[in-house]
Amino acid sequence: MPEDVAVALARAAGRLGPFAHEVRWYSDVPSTNDIAATWAECGAIEGSVVVADTQSAGRGRQGRCWASPVGAGLYVSTVLRPIEQVLPFLTIAAGLGLTEGIQAATGLVAELKWPNDVFMSGRKVAGVLAEATSSPAGTCVVLGFGINVSIAAYPPEVADLATSLEEQHGEPVARGRVLAECLSAFACRYLDLAEGRRGAVLEAWRGRASSMVGRRVRWSEMGGHREGVVDGIDDAGALVVRTGDGPTRITAGELQWL
Fold first, then answer.
1. What 3-state DSSP class applies to 49?
2. pLDDT for 121-145, tens place per residue?
3. 65 in the Ramachandran plot: left (φ > 0), alpha (ψ -120 to 50) or beta?
């Protein structure tokens, strides 16, 4: 593990909750989620963390590729064994934790877009992907996230859509501190959910996502397309969209922001 990352994690150890137990650093992997899933199948404890310097097959939602330039980002996956009441809100808590951790580490204020995207200046700086997997102790969740830390050359298809903390900050950003603060903030929000403080997580998420309210969106439904205006999220974490037929709840799927 790079010394700057090890030092940052050591300094934050008392705030990392379950993520303080074991962190494995890799120089190059196909996907940190895949490494974490294999580790979970071998009995990894909750909070085990995989971090890589680059990924050759990183992925986001809907099977999209997640660009992972060498040394330019944080590519992280965690092994979680959440209780049932926590499951529906995991990506909400993770996205919120990323915005809070980024702000604590850099002072930058990021916005959230349902279900799991972190934006700055209208461009994506981070994302979350949760995948269920099996293990000797039963089903668990691999919660992965990617953060664009340094300015890098992104593939043409995302170059105009992505940004980085360094670009937004205007100067270099300490990658180790960003990792430590994001894991710490996520640990705090994960504990909130486990101890029944779902309302606090949802309200904080809404506060970070105010810019999406009033936006028009399009989505697929029953083989066709529908459009509406975003009202926000409800207490179950579903996106509520106002249409000509009344409010519609969206719990999964792909959205196109218009």
1. strand
2. 999 999 999 999 877 777 799 999 9
3. beta
CB 25 within 8 A of CB 5: yes
Quick one: 128 exposed, middle or buried, by C-beta within 10 A (0-12, 13-18, 19+)? buried
According to the CATH classification, is domain 213-257 in 1.10.268.10?
A: no
Spatial distance between the Cα atoms of 117 and 165, rounded to a whole number of angstroms: 14
Pinpoint the alpha helices (H) of the chain.
3-11, 32-41, 90-106, 156-159, 165-169, 175-194, 198-208
pLDDT digits (tens, 9 = 90+) for 183-210: 999 999 999 999 999 999 999 999 999 9
Give DSSP secondary structure letters for 89-103.
GHHHHHHHHHHHHHH
Residue intervals of the chain classified under CATH 3.30.930.10 are 3-208
Q: Where in the chain is the domain with CATH 2.30.30.100?
A: 213-257
Chain centroid, CA 213 distance in Å: 20
Superfamily of the domain at 3-208: Bira Bifunctional Protein; Domain 2 (3.30.930.10)
The parts of the chain modelled with pLDDT lower than 70 are: 57-69, 153-157, 159
Q: Determine the length of the chain.
A: 258
DSSP string spanning 225-241? EEEEEEEEE-TTS-EEE
CB atoms within 10 A of CB 53: 20
The CA distance from 17 to 55, in Å, is 26
| Residue 133, phi then psi, degrees to nearest 5 | -150, 165
